[in-house]
Amino acid sequence: MTPPLGIIEGFYGPLWQWQEREALVRTLAPAGYRFYLYAPKGDAFLRKRWQEPHPESTATAIRAFGHFCRQQGLAFGVGLSPYELFNDFNTDSQQALAQKLLALDSLEIDWLAILFDDMHSQHPELAAEQGRIMHWVQAHSQAKRLLMCPTYYSDDPVLDRVFGQRPANYLEGLGQALPAGVDVFWTGEEVCAREISPGHLRRVTHQLGRKPVLWDNYPVNDGDRMSRHLHLRGFTGRPAANAGWLSGHAINPALQPTLTAIPALTLAQSYQQGEDYQYGQSFLQAAKQTLGAALAHQLQADLLLLQDSGLHRLSDERKARLQATYAGFDHPAAREVQAWLTGAYQVTDEMVQTQ
Questions:
Q1: Angle at CA 133, nearest 5°, toward 10 and 175?
Q2: What is the reported pLDDT for 355?
Q3: Which CATH number fits domain 5-286: 3.40.640.10, 3.20.20.80, 3.40.50.1820, 3.30.200.20?
Q4: How many Cβ atoms from other residues are within 10 Å of residue 30's Cβ?
Q5: To which H or E segment does residue 28 belong?
């Protein structure tokens, strides 16, 4: 059994081009991916400037991409981060949100996600207030499916250090306060979880009173540290038995749209193959399917350098040799490797703080 698989474009850093998104959807739709949520941190009109409508050219492009997704068999949605709305959900902010929801309805979205992650909380009854907001959104949005991301979307104590101590019984309170049909994102025991087990998901399901939608932070590689590495290997630590405790499994992609398809394809294979899944063999199969045999074998040979060593540990001489190697391939994935080697995908702390 495979849960509904999807992409949630939720990373910090440079924005993708629309044709790159379309190419990824074309690759993943035949593998069983069924939804795409557009929520890049670099789109200010979904975050810091959320009260403003998208420029018409961007709105037109989003609408066209949603139509493309539906043609490929995927539901299309948008993730809105109404910045710290829960700290003061007053009449003025309600009016602003109502206008924004009208603008999002005009984009003809199927799904709407309200994202409360990476925000500081000052509300004494945070779970109840976020539930109240989602009831309000449900009454004012035409989206067919609603999702939300909690402020505390993982067990990871880093969230408490950065955003303040989470309220006691936050997940239980949230599950009770939310409308029955609203799905909840969850990343696992860590923000970037190395392993996600059925036992963990069972516990979270009981706390929320509903099966979570897994927001999987692999192969995402944003941030100062992670952007120095290419995340290419097949998925591990996600047993097929997780399917019984999920209402969806969405991956946050890497900064490199073409290379993202390789691990994304292995996730579908891991569910389909169950105990027969082999992440190394799956990587090679997905890479050959996406890149062709020659480039796939080259990536396989360079995995230790690209994924494990990372950009900061490569000498200038090694970078030059890798540049020359990948310049020999006329493929967008090879160009992504070359751009990464020049630092074009480096995400700084300043970018994370300002997006």
A1: 80
A2: 79
A3: 3.20.20.80
A4: 12
A5: helix 18-28
Give Cβ neighbours of residue 261 (< 8 Å, ≥ 6 apart): 24, 27, 28, 286, 290
The average confidence (pLDDT) of the chain is 96
The domain ranges of the chain are: 5-286
* Residues whose CB falls within 8 Å of the CB of residue 332, separated by 6 or more in sequence, listed in order: 20, 23, 258
Identify the CA nearest to 98 among candidates 85, 108, 87. Answer: 85
Amino acid at 278: Q
Considering only CA atoms, which of 134, 5, 143, 140 is closest in space to residue 66?
143
Cα separation, 238 vs 198, in Å, equals 9
Per-residue pLDDT, 91: 86
CA angle 310, 154, 126 (to 5 degrees): 135
Q: For residue 300, what pLDDT is reported? A: 98
Six-digit token pair at 285?
């199969």
Give the tens place of pLDDT for each residue, 33-72: 999 999 999 999 999 999 999 999 999 999 999 999 999 9
Q: The tokens 């849960």 sit on which residue?
A: 3
Average pLDDT over residues 346-353: 86
